[in-house]
């Protein structure tokens, strides 16, 4: 089930980004989530992997991470060629 994510732009910190290492004066560090957000069944996020429906006419489901599988840190290495 989808969830709603709210990012708190009022709570920022100064420091280095944990992902790219860049220095920033406004790093986000707080978000809240709530269950049962809007269900966008017909819209697919371009960076989310989906699996083929098991039966014809079924809806596509996003692929969930598995223990020991690829994670977001692996994304750049998978899409870059060189």
UniProtKB/TrEMBL annotation:
It comes from the Bacteria. Pfam families: CRISPR_Cse1. This is CRISPR-associated protein. It comes from Escherichia coli. The lineage of its organism: Bacteria, Pseudomonadati, Pseudomonadota, Gammaproteobacteria, Enterobacterales.
């Amino acid at each position: 089930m989808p969830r709603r994510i709210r990012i708190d732009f009022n709570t920022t910190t100064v420091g280095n980004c944990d992902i790219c290492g860049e220095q920033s004066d406004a790093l986000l560090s707080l978000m809240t989530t709530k269950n049962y957000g809007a269900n966008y069944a017909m819209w697919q996020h371009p960076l989310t992997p989906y699996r083929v429906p098991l039966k014809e006419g079924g809806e596509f489901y996003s692929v969930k991470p598995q223990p020991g599988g690829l994670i977001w840190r692996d994304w750049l290495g998978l899409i870059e060629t060189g």
